Amino acid sequence: MSAPAVAYPDHLRARVDDYLRTLRFPSRAPRTDGLEDAMRYSLLAGGKRIRPVLALATAEAAGVDAPDVLALAASLELIHTYSLIHDDLPAMDDDDLRRGRPTCHVKFGEDVAILAGDALYAEAFQHLLTAQPGEPARLLAAARELAAATGVDGMVGGQFLDVAGVSDTPEDLRRLHALKTGRLIGASVVCVLLLAGVDDEAVVRWRGFAGELGVLFQIVDDILDVTGTDEGLGKPQGSDERHGKRTYVTEYGLQGARSMAAECHRAARDTLSVVAPAGATELEQITDFIFTRTS
Amino acid sequence: MSAPAVAYPDHLRARVDDYLRTLRFPSRAPRTDGLEDAMRYSLLAGGKRIRPVLALATAEAAGVDAPDVLALAASLELIHTYSLIHDDLPAMDDDDLRRGRPTCHVKFGEDVAILAGDALYAEAFQHLLTAQPGEPARLLAAARELAAATGVDGMVGGQFLDVAGVSDTPEDLRRLHALKTGRLIGASVVCVLLLAGVDDEAVVRWRGFAGELGVLFQIVDDILDVTGTDEGLGKPQGSDERHGKRTYVTEYGLQGARSMAAECHRAARDTLSVVAPAGATELEQITDFIFTRTS
To answer: Which keywords does the record carry (chains A, B) (predicted)?
Structure first.
C-alpha cells in the first residue's frame, strides 16, 4: 500500500459528479424537500465514485460512448449511497462520521435517514428506467442485473451476513463480501455490457474481472481500516475491530491480507487483458487505484 | 361503517396467498436464511392482500387472464410488506404489533427488520423483471410505474410527510395520503393496464378510479383507528391519536370523515362504471369492501 499514488480517471469522475449534481427528487406534494435534502446531502458528499466511473470506463472499453451510460452510472451511485446510509444507522454499524461529515441519521434524524435510503433506491430504478437510453430488452436485462445485485443474493444479503455475524470460515467471509460489495461492483461492469448487447460468453468473462475487482476492493478496505488515518478514511480508523468484525486482516494478518491483495490485483489485471485485449487504460487505472488507494 | 359485511373476491386472495407461499429468497451464501425468515414472516402474516387482489381483478376487467399477472401482483405485496416493516420501526411509528403478531423488528431485531424491508423491495423488482411475462416495452412501463409509485413522488415521499409532520392543511393531508397509500394502490391497477398494452387515454381514466380508491382506503383507515377494536385491527386502536397524527377524523370529525368516505365510495363506483362499462364484479366488490371493512 506504500506504492506512489496512481492515476485515476478523474475526467470520468468529474462527469459523474456534474451529472449527479443535476439530479433532483421532487414530488407533487410541495413539502418533501426535507427528504430530498437528506438524499442529496449523502449523494453529493464526494468520494471516488468508483462504481459509476467503472461503468463509464467499461463503456469506453466495450466501444460504447460514456455519455450514453451516465444514467445507469448515476443509478449505481444512488444505490451505493442508499447502502451507506442504511449501513451507518444506529441499529447497524452505528457510525457517526462518513467522508468526514456527520452521517445522514446524525444530521437529519434516524427516521429521515431510513427514508432517504429507501427513496434513493427507488429513484435509482426510476432514473435507470426513465433516463437511460437503450432497447427495451437490454434495459430490462440491466435492471434485472441491478435488482439481483442488490437483493438477498447481493448487497442486502451480504449486509445481513455482516450484521448477523455468521461468517465462521474464510469461505463465509469471502461469500459475505462477494454479496455485500462484489455484486454491485460487478453490476457496474455487467449492466453496461448488457445495455451494449455484448454476447453472454463475453459477459461471463467480464464477470470474472469484476469479481476479482470486488474482492480486491474489500481486502484493501480491511487493510485501510487498520493502517489508515481517521482523516484519510473520513471515519474512525479501527472501526471494524471495535465492532468485532471478521475481516481479511483478522483472518490472515496484515501481511497475509497484503499478499492476497497483490494476488487479486494481478488476477484482475490478467483477466482484464483477456477481456479487453486492445487495452483499456481507464479500467487499468481503476484496478491499480483500488489496489494502491490510501483512503 | 355499520353496513353488513360485503363479499370479497376470496378466490383471488387465495390465489395470491398460494403464490406468495411458493416464493423463496435464497442466496449463493448458505446462511442468509435468517433474512429470508424475517421476510417471509412479514410477507405471510395474512391480510386481505388488497393490492395484489386489485391487480388480478383489474386484469379480469381488462380482459387479461389473472394468472398472467400473478408475478406483478406478488411484487406489489412484497413492496407493501416492506413499507409496513419500515413504518413499524422504532424510529418511525414504533409499533410492536401488526396483524396481531409481534412486528418484524420485535421478532428479529431492528437491524434485520431494516434489511428485510430493503430486501423485499429489491426482490419485488427482481421478481417482476424475471417472473412476469410480457413484451419488454410493456414490462418496462410497468416497472417504471412501480418505481415512481414507491419513490419520493410516491410511497416513501408520503411516509416522509407523515413522520415529518408537515401536513398543516387539509390539502397537505390529501397529498400525504395520495403519495403514501394512493400511489401504490394506483400502481396495482395501472401496472396491469400497462402490461396489457391498454391505450394512454384509458389509463388516465383508470387512474381516476384508482385515485378515488386510494383516498377511500385512507379515510376508512383513519375512521377504523378510532372506532375499531385492537383485536380487529391487529394493532393498538387509537395509535394515530397517540402519535399526534393529523387524520381525516382529527380534521373533519368522525361524522365528517364518514360522509367523505361515502362520497368517495360513490365517486369510485361511478368512475368504475365508466372505465368498465360491461361491469367488473370483483372490482365492485373490492370497492365496496374497502368502504365497509371493519378491520
So the answer is: Isoprene biosynthesis, Magnesium, Metal-binding, Transferase
